[in-house]
């Protein structure tokens, strides 16, 4: 799957400038600006929607350490 994402990224780096240049030369900067505005707005909207679900790295490490301690304690109890 990583190869597909990598290949798509390379393809967009090659084809993107060609298409954007064609659009720019045919219609001027108007549609490029609209595209960038829509894309930026979409990204900001997604950040606002998923912001409550984001977990800081520090909290994630603490959660993992707590789980490891629980697993270790269960393993020690089962050895008795």
TrEMBL record:
<feature type="transmembrane region" description="Helical">
    <location>
        <begin position="31"/>
        <end position="51"/>
    </location>
</feature>
<dbReference type="InterPro" id="IPR036259">
    <property type="entry name" value="MFS_trans_sf"/>
</dbReference>
<keyword id="KW-1133">Transmembrane helix</keyword>
<feature type="transmembrane region" description="Helical">
    <location>
        <begin position="7"/>
        <end position="25"/>
    </location>
</feature>
<keyword id="KW-0472">Membrane</keyword>
<keyword id="KW-0812">Transmembrane</keyword>
<protein>
    <submittedName>
        <fullName>Uncharacterized protein</fullName>
    </submittedName>
</protein>
